[in-house]
Write a structure and sequence with these properties.
Oligomer: homodimer
Largest interface: A-B, 85 and 85 residues
Helix content of chain A: 40-55%
Radius of gyration of chain A: 19 Å
Largest sheet of chain A: 2 strands, antiparallel
Shape of chain A: globular
Number of strands of chain A: 5
Strand content of chain A: 15-25%
Distance between the termini of chain A: 5 Å
Number of helices of chain A: 6
Chain lengths: 150, 150
């Protein structure tokens, strides 16, 4: 195992959670990704969270590059929040949470589909394309051939 | 898009985040999954979080079934926390966050490998095994052939 050979905070998952790990963040992104929401009032109606929290999350997303803000085409006082490629790239995280919830908490109301309508799922695969089981996947220090402390 | 045709809280990702969405939860699980940590003191040393928070997270994990608690083999006063299959099943979520962090925030210190040492990654695939792009994947109501409101 890796133990304390690297500091926890430099781990990419920890850094990612530093950006999207606050309460509501992933649900706001889900609404943008999969429900097509773009406006403050839409997010608020969907999630029912406090205005100041939503405002702070959206501002942080724009700041860090997960979203970009545009003027509403027909009402310049309103803003439109759109996911950037960086934000869209969190789709697998939302899909993995959904798949886990479906399996362990009971099927939810949605499935993910590709353009051709076929159902989409996340697979853990090796570089050669082989399916990898959850049990066998482990973390190694980048660049290490074998984990010496395991 | 799905809009408000289903209530946000019944969504599986939202329910999953209800269980693992609190601050520290996913990092505690990461330490259990990929660093082999099992004891209170180990998690605390790794993450540097307050005892009462760690204690509350571990108790909740046991309560909901993500971890089971055992006596330490050589010291019955100490407890050992082990991930259940339910807990282990969150590996793809941690891997997805790591992959995202690696891509957008710079490579972190670890890679994920299979038993044969080859690098592991998450792929979005259709039922037929085709790779699906992030752009094309969308959410449909379960059981719906086509999303009528899209």
């Amino acid at each position: 195992m890796l133990g304390r050979e690297y500091p926890g905070d430099s781990c990419s998952a920890a850094r990612a959670l530093g950006i999207v790990g606050e309460r509501w963040s992933l649900l706001i992104l889900r609404d943008a990704m999969f429900r097509g929401l773009t406006q403050f009032a839409e997010f608020q109606q969907s999630l029912g969270l406090a205005s100041n929290v939503l405002s702070s999350r959206l501002a942080a997303f724009v700041d860090v590059g997960l979203m970009r803000v545009e003027e509403h085409p027909s009402d310049t006082r309103r803003r439109v929040y759109r996911l950037t490629e960086m934000g869209m790239s969190l789709k697998p995280t939302l899909i993995s949470l959904t798949e886990w919830g479906d399996r362990w908490l009971g099927n939810g109301p949605v499935v993910f589909v590709a353009e051709d309508g076929s159902e989409v799922s996340l697979r853990l695969t090796s570089a050669g394309g082989r399916d990898v089981s959850l049990a066998e996947v482990r973390a190694l220090r980048r660049g290490a051939k074998e984990d010496s402390s395991d």
